[in-house]
Amino acid sequence: MITADRLHSVQEYYFSKKLREVRGLINQGKPIINMGIGSPDLPPSKEAVSTLQNVLEDNKAHQYQSYQGLPELREAMANFYASRFKVHVDANTELLPLMGSKEGIMHISLAFLNVGDAVLIPNPGYPTYSSVTNLIGAKPIMYDLTAENGWLPNIKALEKTDLSKVKLMWISYPNMPTGAKIDRAKMEELVAFAEAKDLLIVNDNPYSFVLNDNPTSILQIEGAKKVALELNSLSKTFNMAGWRVGMVLGSSEHITAVLKVKSNMDSGMFYGIQKGAITALESGGDWFEKLDEVYRKRRKLMFLLVDKLDATYDKDAAGMFIWAKLPEGSKSSEAFIDELLYSKDIFIAPGTIFGSNGEGYIRFSLCVEEEKIKEAIERFK
Ligand SMILES: Cc1ncc(COP(=O)(O)O)c(C=O)c1O
């Protein structure tokens, strides 16, 4: 059977291919240390896991669930936004639970884009923004994030771009992959830009609670709900990546449009996962402190490893990665990580998988135990 034309617009995800290669090396007996992907290795809270276990006997546990999630899950998500970001949304109309924020990228794109519409996408950025845009027949317009601009959108440069077909703009702060933070003034500028250009801006925000002392949400900006949506996730904040729980927040008009798509795609989230997610969302402040304590220790060690490669980095970046610049005169990022993989059995991500502006950069994940980081450092002695 001939596949659909749209499949020509995307490639198999880099990690899907590369991790096959890495697994092949592991099967050959190579002692690979994987510092490539941001899949939290720490456990979720005991309370969240117990909740999931304890509700399995409930009558409701195995039935289809509401397309909008349990009212108490929406309430817990709204309370989380109110307490952590001081952002207030109506739990019934301005918030929708998702099965991870990744699916939200597709739902939002399907809800707002027609074939031929254009989308502003950060370079470097999460690869799913452009692959989803391509899959639905819209046109990605990559915009530059550079070290000189603090990895923030250059609005003056954007205003000079032909924006006539642009309907949607993706941003992600704290930024992935660079760890850059955004301040209120820049968020205000972005909201004003979206308003002036009549576009919908989406902040993909899964890293706010990892090594970040000032969590920001685009919805903190006055008037943002009119032009902005925000995606968030329990994957990194609560070590629940495999549970697949996320959320989208914004105006009731925008959320209704997303629900129209989503309710035609899945039939609700497993009850136990929703109940466990509620428990996680209700975690006290010490949860976040403990999480940061682990990542801070790992990061300190990881800096020593990055130093061995003579790469440079921002010590104050947010999130669970170190985004490091290769020394002048280095090989390409992909050649560099391949050499590291084959000579030291260490896997890290090349910056280019996030876009052409990632050339010259490499990304280290902090989802690796301290012992493994020490072992990696030893391999340079
Ligand atoms: C920037 C960014 N957005 C979204 C996601 C997807 O997260 P989720 O597990 O909520 O689907 C990731 C995951 O790595 C990410 O890095």
UniProtKB/TrEMBL annotation:
E.C. number: 2.6.1.-
Under InterPro entries, the record lists:
Aminotransferase_I/II_large (IPR004839), LL-DAP_aminotransferase (IPR050881), NHTrfase_class1_PyrdxlP-BS (IPR004838), PyrdxlP-dep_Trfase (IPR015424), PyrdxlP-dep_Trfase_major (IPR015421), PyrdxlP-dep_Trfase_small (IPR015422)
**Could you say which cofactors this protein requires?**
pyridoxal 5'-phosphate
Q: Which UniProt keywords apply?
A: Aminotransferase, Transferase
Q: In this protein, which residues make up the domain named Aminotransferase class I/classII large? A: 31-380
Q: Name one GO molecular function term.
A: transaminase activity
Q: Sorted alphabetically, which CDD domains does this protein's record hold?
A: AAT_like
Is Transferase given among the entry's keywords?
Answer: yes
What SUPFAM superfamilies does the record tag this protein with? PLP-dependent transferases (SSF53383)
**Pfam families recorded for this chain?**
Aminotran_1_2 (PF00155)
Domain of life from the UniProt record: Bacteria
What protein family is recorded? Answer: Belongs to the class-I pyridoxal-phosphate-dependent aminotransferase family.
Q: What is this protein called?
A: Aminotransferase
